[in-house]
Amino acid sequence: MVIRRGIAATLPFVFACALACAPKKTPLDVTKCPPTVPSAEASATAGKRLAPTPEAPASSFGAPEAALSAQAAPPPLLPQSPDPDPPQLGKIGDLPLESGEVLKDCQVEYRVLGAANADKSNVVVWATWFSGITKDLVQLVGPGRLVDSTRYQVVLVGALANGVSSSPSNSLAQPRARFPTIGVRDMVESQHRLLTTVLGLNRVHAVMGISMGGMQTFQWGVAYPSFMDRLIPIVGSPRLAPYDLLLWQANVDAIEQSPEFAGGNYRTQPILSVVQQLGDLHLTTAGNYNREVTREQVLTGHDKLSPPRFDANDRLRQLRAMIGHDVTRAFGGSLDAAVAAVKAKLLVVVNERDAMVTPGPALDFARRAHATTLTLKGDCGHRSTGCEEKEISARIARFLQ
């Protein structure tokens, strides 16, 4: 099956496009929309296959290591355009990782919107989604949006491997395949260090996030339970369901098996058409997709695919981080113990028809935690933050009070 250039062109753009410029009868066109969004145990065999594993060194993929010019920075692979409002970069030094490796000279992207009150008790931290950057979140902040920056100081933080925070695509010391394995816990550790050592925050009012940002939100709750008063994971998960793991592993396989990828040593950004097709198939429901996209667009659009904004090596690192995500790991695999560690009030937002990050694990966590839930019923699936923003915003506003 072939897919055109719209939703599948890359996962980062979905939520803002849905809010700002998604046509009713055509697919989302990321070329006309500001960059924005958007995630085992079935058998022993599947479990072994789906388990995250460290990447082999670049030279093991057949590309001559000498060709990489190890002393030189990797060449730019994506179009570079001036950013009139660039984010700030918090330099937090070398970061020890769950894998036992060290991320050298780590930096974390952030933006601050709104003013803190006298005791800094109105700070809301918002982590980026899979493939997202903080710029993607800006249009979701403000009066009437998901968080009102006239009432709260909103700190937008970029996840590791998003292309702005330390990533395979921008690291000078550990570029491309030499970039260490990272997990969702490492993303949270980098953000905690940013908030405490760079921004001087020892407690915040809330932590929130959408999709992979929601995964980070769950991890924040168990890793630093006294750091926040509220947690708001939106279409996220405390650990991925088997269906989700299958999807993300299919994405990994599609990247690694693509000749374009060249073991991570590509000189031009891979198009990765299968990855883009997987995005189309799971970001929304079949009914919604069939309304938005015509047969002609599907049949002719494949030849018009262009490289996604999100670098392929960065994508691979974040995919593996989601596959390995499990908030129970520090608790011997006990979900009840992980739930018991959470001290903050919890609002869990899911869409019952989400096929990208299925809602079961998040709802199970919420039930055990006696948390507040919002289950969306619309047919946008994982894109529901854009399609049902008004309902979500109203619920978040009440919950933050």
In terms of topology, how is this protein built?
Elements (H helix, E strand, L loop, with lengths): L13 H7 L23 H7 L37 E9 L5 E12 L9 E5 L6 H5 L14 E5 L26 H15 L5 E7 L1 H12 L4 E7 L7 H15 L16 H11 L2 H7 L2 H7 L10 H12 L11 H7 L3 E7 L8 H10 L2 E5 L7 H4 L1 H12 L1
Parallel strand pairs: 3-4, 3-5, 5-6, 6-7, 7-8
Antiparallel strand pairs: 1-2, 2-4
- Which regions have little confidence, pLDDT < 50, spanning 5+ residues? 1-74
Protein structure class: alpha/beta
CA-to-CA gap between the ends? 48 Å
Strand proportion: 5-15%
Overall pLDDT score: 85
Radius of gyration, in Å, reads 20 Å
Major β-sheet annotation: 8 strands, mixed
Q: Tell me the number of helical segments per DSSP (H or I, 4 or more residues long).
A: 14
H/E series = HHEEEHEHEHEHHHHHHEHEHH
User: Strand order, biggest sheet?
Assistant: 1-2-4-3-5-6-7-8
Describe the structure in your own words:
Strand 5 (204-210), helix 5 and strand 6 (228-234) form a beta-alpha-beta unit. The longest helix is centred in the middle third of the chain and has 15 residues, at 184-198. 33% of the residues lie in helices and 14% in strands. The chain has an 8-stranded mixed beta sheet with strand order 1-2-4-3-5-6-7-8, sandwiched between helices. The radius of gyration is 20 Å and the shape is globular. With 401 residues, it is of the alpha/beta class. Helix 4 crosses helix 5 (212-223) and helix 6 runs antiparallel to helix 10 (312-323). It contains 14 helices and 8 strands.
